[in-house]
Amino acid sequence: MRPPIFDELNTSVPHVGDLVSLHMHDLRRAPIKALKQEWEYLAKRVSSKLTAEEREMLYLKWDIPPEGKQRRRLQLVNKLWSDLFNMEDVRESAEIVAKLVGFC
Length: 104
Fold this sequence. Notes:
Layout: H1 4-9, H2 24-49, H3 52-61, H4 69-79, H5 87-101
Helix pairs in contact: 2-4, 2-5
């Protein structure tokens, strides 16, 4: 059976002797790459799933400046889940993500 980490790294299952050549930095980069891909996916959906009014309201609420229209979507997505100790922030983040992926 192929371990899931090798699917993320797009590599073949190494033989026992080849495990030494598998670099640890590759294993650490895989989750970061997946997270960046998720942010990009959500950022692309901001303009299609939210109205212009909803977007502007969210940008104001999350303190995102009006300069740089393209980057505003990515800034919004990056600010989601930023304060896990604030339950209101967690709730709002969950609502935004649910709307972007089509759960509501």
